[in-house]
Amino acid sequence: MRFVVVGLGSMGRRRIRLLKQISDAYEIIGVDSNSERCIQAEKELAIKTASDLDIVLDNYKPDGVIVSTSPLSHGNIIKKSLKAGANVFTEINLINDMYDGNIMLAKDKNKVLFLSSTFLYRSEIDYIYQKVSTNKDNLNYNYHVGQYLPDWHPWESINNYFVGEKKTNGCRELFAIELPWIIKVFGDIESYEVLSSKNTGLSVQYNDNYLLLIKHKNGNKGILAVDVVSRKAVRNLEIYGENLYLTWDGTPSGLNVYNYEKKVDENINLYTDNVDKQEGYAAFVIENAYKNELETFIDMINGRDAARHTFEEDYKILSMIDEIESR
Prior knowledge:
This protein has helices spanning 10-22, 35-45, 53-60, 74-83, 99-109, 123-133, 170-186, 288-301, 311-326; strands spanning 2-6, 27-31, 48-50, 64-67, 87-90, 113-115, 140-146, 189-197, 209-216, 221-227, 234-241, 244-248, 255-259, 264-267. By secondary structure, it is an alpha/beta fold. The longest helix is centred in the middle third of the chain and has 17 residues, at 170-186.
């Protein structure tokens, strides 16, 4: 199979590493207008690179295009790739202004249009879903996810990539990451209340922290705290009800269920194989789920499996984030 990875920043290079792990027989070309990134990718990953996507699409005829550029550029790259007859995998988009056209184009071309939603491919989320969905009672949850924005990419200024922009800001990205799995696990959202503000001196033109009080249609309730303020990178989840108490700190070893008969926390280890971890990232950032969703994309190209999060579902979530930010 042939793949083109568009965007050779940290995420694009991650996708290439994982494609090589899946099969060393894949042919991979990286595309980036930044010549320094092309040189870095060639040295690190032993691939060919190019600067012009149009030429690559015309000459290379890829089976799949993986879009790992800044979110504001995704729509046009997706459209161009679909028109060229390629299946498309894209990182989270954060804006939905070209969704309708690209969804229809993918259907007309009979091509896979796959949207990354990495947490839905985490083993811990599968486990939490099973515990919550089989629980007979309504549940409450508290969930805080946050990390100080300059620590996301300490090698570059926040003004040099998309999280510094209001349209694609850091809190918006966290909502886009977390809401798909929250809705899957706890159910469709009926209503919510929002508190937000700017608590830092960061040079960004958007609120840097949000508190949501969420009511789900099935009776579950939750408090979701999202921010780019926390100096410690955290993902802290607490779920509680009459027959379930579960906590997770976002790491492979941090999932616990309280055994109320024995009065002890029981650690749940879901990783019998090695956890794939890249140096320099927070403890809860592991490669396994990124690989799982790429494998699902490839299976879909070959007529197997289905995506866990669709463009149609994401359209609704991005519209909800628009509303959250406007309150």
